[in-house]
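Usage

Read records sequentially. Each one opens with the input sequence:
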Amino acid sequence: ESTRILQFVALIVLSLIRVHCAIICPRSQTLSATVDSVTKEALSQEIFLEEDEPLIVAQMIEFFILLGLR
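and closes with the structure output:
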């Protein structure tokens, strides 16, 4: 549970987007499972999204954040 308090970093190509686990994890089962695992990403608190379209990932994160404000 303590890992959810820390910020989680998503590295998208040359972009760096910092997101908070308390916002992202309740909205994404995949990201929540990654944060709660013992993978390299969970331990480093960084996810490299090299194969994903940067604009789409940024829009997804924005959606998750705005969803939390409603």
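Summary fields computed downstream for this record:
- The chain is about 45% helix and 20% strand.
- The helical segments are 21-24, 29-36, 40-44, 54-69.
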